[in-house]
């Protein structure tokens, strides 16, 4: 059966858009030039965060996503069964700590509270009670009870399983070549459809050029360390206050900040780094050393825990740090859902809902205007 919509990109964002549309009765086909959930999603940590976002459109989308994720997962369990819908959801909460500049951390949390975020300023001794392995050099901390974590590949494949259960199709190793009236040209032939969603992540800029509607989405590389199985535990998602600045920065050179969390597998994930190096996937030892050094400063006991491996990936970076979500006025039938950078896992549920709302003409879950494609930072002047 001919699909109504073809989603190009089977990562977490494409999967969430496809799931939300299929739940509303839209016929969906998802294609990916590689393995579904095998690109940026496979290189993610699984962050579902409010704590790193200042008041504004992205925080509003994050709040909608945090509210939607548990309901969406319950729907998926009802549809697929508990075993197939297991995504390792963990509402563990987040802890942001300051080793210096405690005033700036408190001010940031105060602004978030004004936007409805639960951000509880606590003392250093309170932080050590929550995380006994923290360095005693902590001067202040903010507890975010609504931060959560999930396993990104499991989440994406579960969303795609729901699409298939509802009669949709998911096809890997199929490249999108261009849009023609009536559908999409692919490496496997022409797909008739009414709309195409560009959910290509860091490659969304390349795809947009191919279809004649370029958007300024660039890859931003990040690296994560993974320890061996260890009894050393981190109860929350813990990061230092510098992380917010790194997320908001548009600098191309290397930036690192400490992010540490345990997984259900008994390992510890250590991040994070950001640098714009194109699609160069070289693993640089100085970056790994810097991540390890900063993690040990935050959790001194990690010095005795061996690192098992490291992995890296590319995040879809938009110059104004806002996703691109919605229709493209330049090419009839073309939609975009990209530019989430390192927040795609957490923002996916809200993004899928927003795409479905706009596509079906429903009241949108958040104001779509800030995410429109025809904004100067994203659409080059012609």
TrEMBL record:
GO function terms (MF aspect): oxidoreductase activity
Record-linked InterPro entries: FAD-dep_OxRdtase, FAD/NAD-bd_sf
Keyword Oxidoreductase: yes
Domain spans labelled FAD dependent oxidoreductase: 4-358
Gene Ontology CC terms, in alphabetical order: cytoplasm
Superkingdom to which the source organism belongs: Bacteria
Annotated keywords: Oxidoreductase
PANTHER family named in the record: FAD-DEPENDENT OXIDOREDUCTASE DOMAIN-CONTAINING PROTEIN 1 (PTHR13847:SF287), SARCOSINE DEHYDROGENASE-RELATED (PTHR13847)
Name the UniProt record assigns to this protein: Glycine/D-amino acid oxidase
């Amino acid at each position: 059966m001919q699909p109504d919509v073809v989603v190009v990109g089977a990562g977490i964002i494409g999967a969430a858009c496809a799931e939300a549309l299929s739940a509303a009765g839209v016929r969906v086909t998802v294609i990916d030039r590689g393995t579904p959930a095998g690109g940026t999603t496979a290189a993610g940590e699984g962050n579902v965060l409010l704590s790193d976002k200042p008041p504004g459109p992205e925080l509003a989308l994050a709040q909608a996503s945090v509210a939607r994720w548990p309901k969406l997962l319950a729907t998926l369990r009802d549809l697929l069964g508990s075993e197939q819908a297991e995504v390792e959801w963990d509402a563990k909460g987040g802890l942001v700590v300051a080793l210096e500049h405690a005033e700036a951390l408190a001010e940031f949390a105060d602004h978030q509270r004004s936007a409805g975020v639960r951000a509880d300023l606590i003392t250093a001794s309170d932080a050590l009670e929550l995380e006994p392995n923290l360095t005693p050099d902590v001067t202040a901390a903010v507890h975010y009870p609504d931060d959560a974590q999930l396993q990104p590949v499991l989440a994406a494949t579960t969303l795609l399983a729901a699409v298939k259960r509802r009669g949709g199709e998911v096809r890997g190793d199929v490249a999108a070549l261009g849009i023609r009236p009536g559908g999409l040209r692919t490496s496997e032939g022409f797909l008739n459809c009414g709309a195409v969603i560009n959910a290509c992540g860091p490659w969304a800029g390349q795809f947009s050029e191919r279809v004649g509607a370029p958007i300024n989405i660039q890859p931003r590389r990040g690296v994560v360390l993974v320890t061996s199985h260890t009894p050393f535990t981190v109860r929350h998602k813990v990061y230092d206050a510098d992380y917010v600045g790194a997320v908001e920065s548009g600098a191309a050179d290397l930036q690192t900040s400490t992010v540490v969390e345990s997984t259900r597998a008994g390992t510890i994930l250590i991040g994070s780094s950001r640098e714009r190096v194109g699609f160069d996937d070289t693993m640089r030892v100085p970056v790994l050393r810097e991540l390890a050094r900063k993690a040990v400063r935050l959790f001194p006991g990690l010095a005795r825990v061996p690192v098992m491996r490291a992995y890296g990936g590319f995040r879809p970076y938009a110059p104004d740090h806002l996703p691109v979500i919605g229709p493209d006025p330049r090419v009839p039938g073309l939609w975009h859902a990209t530019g989430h950078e390192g927040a795609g896992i957490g923002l996916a549920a809200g993004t899928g809902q927003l795409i479905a709302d706009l596509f079906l003409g429903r009241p949108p879950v958040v104001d779509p205007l800030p995410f429109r494609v025809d904004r100067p930072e994203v659409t080059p002047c012609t």
